[in-house]
Fold this sequence. Notes:
Layout: H1 10-32, H2 40-69, H3 81-112, E1 117-119, E2 123-125, H4 133-168, H5 179-182
Helix pairs in contact: 1-2, 1-4, 2-3, 3-4
Amino acid sequence: MTPSPARYSRPAKTFHWLTVFFVFAAWGLGLVGDDLPRGSIRHLGEFIHILLGETVVLLLLLRLVWRFITPPPPLEPTELGLAGALATRAVHLALYGLLLAVPVVGVVTLFNGGEALSIYGLYDIPSPWPKNRELKHNSKEIHELLAHILVVLALLHAAAALVHHYVFKDRVLKRILPRLLVGE
């Protein structure tokens, strides 16, 4: 399962694409969550949103462990040179940081509302502090802002991969796509 010098390993690709799916699903549900009818429907929407966020954190941890065990292939030289390599590293670090920060601030928001964090519906972690409406509102705003930044950065990341593929005609995008889509 080790990567070839030119591509990511199958587990690395799986973690990447599952993370994309769960981030966008959580973000989409977060956008419409307050518009859901009050009661059981909204409660279910919040529960699913939290499950998606927990899954993002789980995937991030698995991804980091896998990255430590099986380092990614080295960056391929591109027309962007050192500046492109530095930008790539900065964006990847920012994405990893946001993948952790968004759920952490989400948990703080729950706790500020005096609510427990349910871990996949199996175990509840009670709020360590009393309910505070103002803090809950502020942390929710930060959670939403960070989520939007994460999605925008992910879209810019995807756009850059498409530019590499269609404009520069290099292998940057092909390295992370499933073999089925690459035709190799």
